Amino acid sequence: MKHNKEGNTEQQILEAAETLFLEKGFALTSTTEIAKVAGCNQALVHYYFRTKENLFEAIFEKKARLFFSVIFQNEGADRSFEQRLKETIEAHFDIVAANSKIPFLFINELTTNQQRLITLSEEFVSAREEAFRKVEQELQAEIKKGTIRPMELIDLLITVISLNLTLFLVKPIIKVITNISDEDFQKLIAHRKQENVKIILNSLKP
Amino acid sequence: MKHNKEGNTEQQILEAAETLFLEKGFALTSTTEIAKVAGCNQALVHYYFRTKENLFEAIFEKKARLFFSVIFQNEGADRSFEQRLKETIEAHFDIVAANSKIPFLFINELTTNQQRLITLSEEFVSAREEAFRKVEQELQAEIKKGTIRPMELIDLLITVISLNLTLFLVKPIIKVITNISDEDFQKLIAHRKQENVKIILNSLKP
DNA sequence: ATTCTATTTAATAGCTCTATTAAATATCGA
DNA sequence: TCGATATTTAATAGAGCTATTAAATAGAAT
User: In CATH, which superfamily holds the domain spanning B9-60?
Assistant: First the structure.
């Protein structure tokens, strides 16, 4: 049975670590700093998670799961392929917007640490394989019908990801360069969401 | 007068630093490692550049200059706006492709180090301001003519950057997940270049 | 050959970081 | 209350890092 003084120390460490890792990545975040933000002794970080690596992985996996949780809106034969694609793009955009630091964390850690990538890909790639196959079939069926120009699913995927991620990847840069207010950035986000949908749907036309 | 044993030590340090900084960013690269790759004593890195920060800035500025060197192909009234835009997109894509690690370096350093961003933006943003104004005027003229749907230059810019950068930002991820060969990745790049041009030009239609 | 300067080296100060340990303290059940 | 267990703390080992220093070496100029 656990019995901490005030609240849940382990939880506070997790929250502090999440904030800091998302802010600066694994390398620039120290367990000393995590402890300071969590309001506890530095040794406690290691008491609960033994290594900084373990702590990071707990958070990274959780975020990976969230990030890949959007799947093509397959259900409902009452809606057209285009309509369901639109909904998927919007859902993906919304998740990225609500977790706007995840893209940076991902690219940062997966680029500098190949091993992390290998472990992750095993779990996620195979889990998505079946879903991909189904959507690919639907896409090719649409192409055969002539409603969409010839293309592969991977092309569509790259386009969606490119358009939906980049705004948030360069968010800190835009903020400093343009001095844009939070309110105006929110407006820009809402505008880009519609813009992205428009661009992508346009790009499918035969 | 300089007189090193073999070759130019300073140059070798610069080259080693460039490789490593592009690979892993500022924080994960040590002067010890730079010296090892450059084939010299670690103290020499500090002898020539005094601080790691100085060395980094030398490389970062050079890369920033390269990265922002593409400007809208203004010259030549014989070519249409669309044709010149196409050439600009392709030139931008080519520069990114030839320096595919720069986007990662940029986003990594500018996100984790606000100060670097502030220094950089002062130099570059003001230098580009005039060029932007001119292209914005041309764009609005096209819109008035009815050849392009109503939009602002910043929208077009975000779209171009999004599509042109992301493939290279996620390159390490794609390589591990898909086990794609270098040759096939080159093919993917060539394909995406045309795809991006197509998507962007399509997105302008009224 | 000698002197002057530039380059290179080994050694190390001083710092921060991760992780561990032993001791102290708190909490629970009996 | 008491003992067992969980949590917390201070201290520190051990490693790596940046930057400096003093001494050694090489090359050019006189």
Answer: Homeodomain-like (1.10.10.60)
